[in-house]
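Reopening: Translation initiation factor IF-3 still failing for me.
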Amino acid sequence: MFDLKQKQKDAKKKQHQVQVKEIKLRPATDVGDYQVKLRAILKFLEEGNKVKITLRFRGREMAHQQLGLAQLQKIEVDVAEFGVVEQAPKMEGRQMGMLLGPKKKK
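Support: Ran it again with your exact input. Result attached.
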């Protein structure tokens, strides 16, 4: 009886709860800041978490939504070996979002 409870307790400890982490960017995010955000995305994916990337448009940036889409596509290419796109980029008001999930481990 006790051994069974102990095994169940150990199995529960070893479970990994998948969380959705969010990274916020702007279309004008520069190279240095982009690299920092990219490292955070890769870390989250390696831990087995999902990552929601939110691109916030302000003011006149709304007229250049293709720049935001290009930035999300660049992220998609940069994280290709660690994660896959679970939800394609789409506009939600003034924000464009994309969901990345970790690649399955063999």
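The first helix runs from residue 2 to 14. If you still see a failure, please send the error message rather than a screenshot.
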